[in-house]
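Re: that chain you flagged

S.,

Sorry for the slow reply, it's been a week of failed gels. I finally had a moment to sit down with the sequence you sent. For the record, here it is as I used it:
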Amino acid sequence: MVLFLLIVLASASPAFAVDVTEVSPNISNEALKAVKRGLEYHKAKQWSSAINEYERAVALGGRFPEAFNNLAYCYRKVGRVDRSIELYKVAIALRPLFVQAHDYLARAHLAKGNKAAALHEYEIVRRLDKKLAAWLWIAIQRNDPDYYDELRD
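Prediction finished late last night. Pasting the C-alpha cells below so you have them in one place:
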C-alpha cells in the first residue's frame, strides 16, 4: 500500500509547524488527533502544552516524522536543546530528506555552539532547498539559531 501523506506548511504559525491533513492508515486516529491539538498549541506558542500533545502522538503513532520534528522544535524553544537534537535525528531517520528537520537540527547545533555540526546540516539543506539554505546560512553567520523564525512570527 502506498502511503499518502499530505503535508501543509502552516505559514501563519511559528516555525512553519507541519500540519497533517491526511495520513496513512498506519498512523492511529488518536495519534493524529494529538498532533492536531499539538499544532494548535504550537501556533499559539504554548510550548509545554504542545510538547504534551506531540509526546502523546509519538507514543501512540510510532513512525511519524512530523510529530518528532514539531516536538523537537518545541523542546528547543523551552531550552531543552539536547532533547531537541535527539528528536530531530529521529525525524531525519524516519525521513532522510526531511529538509525542515535538517534546517532545525542545524539551528539546534548552533544553539549548542556546535558550528561544525550546523554547517554539516547546512550542506544537506543546501542540496535540498536553496532558498531555505540561504536563510540558514545567514543564521549561521550571525550565530543566531532563531534568525528567520523570528521573521515568520
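What I noticed first: The helical segments are 29-43, 47-61, 65-77, 81-94, 99-111, 115-128, 130-142, 149-152.

Talk soon,
D.
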